[in-house]
Amino acid sequence: MGLHHYAPDREHVRRALGTFAAGVTIVTTFDDDSNAVGMTATAFTSVSFTPPSALICLSLSARTHNVIRTRGRFGVNLLATDGQELCDYCSAPGGDKVLPVMWLDTKSAWNAPCLNSAMVFFDCQVTEAIETGTHVIIIGSIKAIGLSAHRDSTGPLLHFRGNYRRLSPIEPGTSPDPLPIVFEDSLIMEAHQQ
C-alpha cells in the first residue's frame, strides 16, 4: 500500500493537514468598539505548563488577528459537539463576527469574551507573535481558565478532512496495547536519580 509522494503545493498541503483531526475553537477578543468578536480556528495547542501558556495560529489577513495584536488579549473557547452552528457563524466569509450577548458568559470578569456554551475557556494575554509566511503564531500567557461542570459528559467538536466529527470509543480488543506515556518531568526526575 504505502504513501504516494507529492510536491508540497497548496492543494496537497491542505489535503495532508486536513487529515490531522483537530478540536474546533472560537478565538475571541474585544474590538475597538468593545464588541465581542470571534473567529473559528483549529490551530491551537498548549505551549508550557510553567508558566501556563498556549498558542493560536491565525492568517495575517484575518481581521481578528489585527485586533488581537492591538488589544493584547484573546480567549480560546473549546467547542462541544453541539457547537457546529456557532462554528459556522464564526467561520463564514466577511467581516468580523460580532458575538450576540446571549452567547456570552457575562457573570465572570474575563478579559476576553467567553462563550457560555464552551467546554473550556482560556483567557490569554499576548506574550509573543511570530510571523511566518501567510500566518502568525500568537503565544499567550494563560491568565484564567473556565471549566464547564455540566459539559463533562459531552465530547469535543472535531474537524477532519473538511467535515465535523465527534469522538467515539474504540471497542475493547480492537486496538493494540497503548503506548507508554512519559512526561518530561518524569524524565528529569529519572536523570537526577541516576
From TrEMBL:
<dbReference type="InterPro" id="IPR012349">
    <property type="entry name" value="Split_barrel_FMN-bd"/>
</dbReference>
<comment type="similarity">
    <text>Belongs to the non-flavoprotein flavin reductase family.</text>
</comment>
<keyword id="KW-0560">Oxidoreductase</keyword>
<dbReference type="GO" id="GO:0016491">
    <property type="term" value="F:oxidoreductase activity"/>
</dbReference>
<protein>
    <submittedName>
        <fullName>Flavin reductase family protein</fullName>
        <ecNumber>1.-.-.-</ecNumber>
    </submittedName>
</protein>
<dbReference type="Pfam" id="PF01613">
    <property type="entry name" value="Flavin_Reduct"/>
</dbReference>
<feature type="domain" description="Flavin reductase like">
    <location>
        <begin position="17"/>
        <end position="166"/>
    </location>
</feature>
<dbReference type="InterPro" id="IPR002563">
    <property type="entry name" value="Flavin_Rdtase-like_dom"/>
</dbReference>
<dbReference type="InterPro" id="IPR050268">
    <property type="entry name" value="NADH-dep_flavin_reductase"/>
</dbReference>
